[in-house]
Design goal:
- Helix 4 links the parallel strand 3 (58-61) and strand 4.
- The strands form two sheets. Strands 3-4-5-6-7 form a five-stranded mixed β-sheet, with helices on both faces. A two-stranded parallel sheet has the order 1-2.
- With 327 residues, it is an alpha/beta fold.
- It is elongated, with a radius of gyration of 25 Å.
- The protein starts with 5 loop residues before the first helix and ends in an 11-residue tail after the last helix.
- Helix 9 (169-200) packs across helix 12 and helix 10 packs antiparallel against helix 11.
- Helix content is 48%, strand content 9%.
Length: 327
């Protein structure tokens, strides 16, 4: 395993607990030593890592997408025909297709594995979406089975991993998965924001002097805490999900979420999903809106909002209502 961040380290732990021998490397030597204390074999360099592996070697990479090409270049001269290289990070599927051809010229088999599970993967297992050479996938099946969520079923999909197609397919499926994730998160966020405002705002006020009041106002008494409402929906509701479980846990600790600034980053896969949809001519308005909402959360719509105020002042003399001081 090369790359021992939060996911890479926990994947090593899960593999080790299933009886697999893991050789580990990270530019942060302390991360490798921490896993060595738990039974893994630490390597001081990539060359040393390769030397410690029996042939054919299986090298799993868990590093940022932008660093993969440089790593593969450094690996190239030391790899042998029959070795398997797996990119389990969040690379772009088109890069996988190019890399597969580059590795094939060396006799090396390259797999792209979309990996979902985050920091809970050690406990729950991972969901693995696998692209590349089918024979190589069959060869590493014991590794995939150890990492995945497990269980029983007629297909590997029921156990948490699935071969989804040729090179690039794994990361393409994971890309769309992440786009859907953005949309689900945005829906929960918008719904809970409405509930929060309705529960805390006792009087509905017009936005400005010319805006008519809402036709209907929330009930005078909304007697619930968001933490309890999230907990309720986890039990029997059609909107129950693991995302809701995570939100309910956060609300239980901090019902007002005051420690969060609300600046939401995006990993890049949401953008790639929208780009793929445009190329295919497929409408994905929910996924696109969810991505743009993340941009807005980081202040990227601030000038647009000032532009709106300027135009309203210009055509109608509408003076912008001063913001209320934070309470």
């Amino acid at each position: 395993m090369i790359g021992l961040g939060r996911m890479g380290s926990n994947m090593v732990r899960r593999l080790s607990r299933a009886g697999h021998r893991c050789v580990v490397y990270d530019h942060n030597a302390a991360a490798a030593q921490a896993l060595a204390a738990e039974g893994a074999t630490a390597a001081a360099s990539i060359e040393q890592l390769l030397a410690k592996l029996p042939s054919p070697r299986v090298v799993w990479i868990m590093i940022p997408a932008g660093a993969v090409d440089a790593l593969l270049k450094s690996l190239g001269g030391a790899l042998r025909a029959g070795d398997i290289v797996i990119d389990g990070g969040n690379s772009h599927f088109a890069d996988d297709m190019r890399r597969e051809q580059e590795m094939a010229a060396l006799g090396v088999r390259y797999l792209d594995v979309g990996t979902s599970g985050g920091t809970w993967g050690l406990e729950r297992g991972y969901c693995l979406m696998i692209g590349g050479d089918r024979q190589a996938v069959q060869q590493i099946d014991p590794l995939l089975a150890a990492l995945a969520t497990g269980g029983s079923g007629a297909s590997t999909a029921m156990r948490g991993y699935l071969y989804v197609g040729s090179s690039g397919a794994g990361h393409f499926v994971k890309m769309v998965h992440n786009g859907i994730e953005y949309g689900l998160m945005a829906a929960y966020a918008e719904g809970f924001n409405l509930l929060h405002r309705a529960a805390t705002q006792r009087e509905t006020q017009a936005v400005d002097a010319e805006t008519a009041p809402m036709r209907s106002t929330p009930p005078k008494r909304l007697d619930f805490g968001l933490d309890q409402l999230a907990e309720l929906w986890r039990h029997g509701s059609v909107v129950s999900s693991w995302l809701l479980d995570l939100l309910a846990a956060q609300l239980a600790e901090s019902p007002t979420l005051d420690e969060f600034a609300g600046r939401v980053a995006d990993s890049g896969e949401g953008r790639w999903t929208i780009e793929a949809a445009v190329e295919a001519g497929v409408p994905v308005p929910v996924l696109a809106t969810a991505l743009f909402a993340r941009f807005s959360s980081r202040g990227e719509s601030e000038f647009a909002n000032r532009t709106l105020s300027a135009m309203r002042l210009g055509f109608g003399g509408h003076v912008e209502t001063p913001a209320k001081p934070a309470s």
